[in-house]
Sequence to fold (139 residues):
Amino acid sequence: MGEKAVIVLHSGDMDKVYSALIIGNGALAMGMEASIYFTFWGLMRLKKGGLEKGPLSKMHMLGLGKWMVKKRMDKANVASLERLMNDFKELGGKIIACEMTMEIMGIKKEELRTEWVDEWGAVGSYIHEARDANITLFI
Fold:
């Protein structure tokens, strides 16, 4: 059994989604398995058109802070969240969408980017992934 990183993405904040995908891609690039369990506000980023929509976790300032950060990221040639997600999937990363969150928030499967989702699961899916992981993170 190889090394594995498992991330719970509870937040939908732009910077936290970036963190999850950057860490996930880094683990995959280093030859590890990686999975991200999208739940609550994190799951909202899997909605069609929703990946780039979250606010910043700090200094959002009615959108001005996010705009400034995005301009700096563009200047530094930081990949978009869409690109990072596509890279994550191409490198073999696994996405789990929380079914309980979908039920609570009234989200239907067809509202999500189903091409990214590998598994529809609940806490048992996360536990199954995390029980033999070398790295587990809650973001």
User: Anything to note?
Assistant: Helices lie at 14-29, 40-43, 64-75, 81-90, 99-105, 123-130.
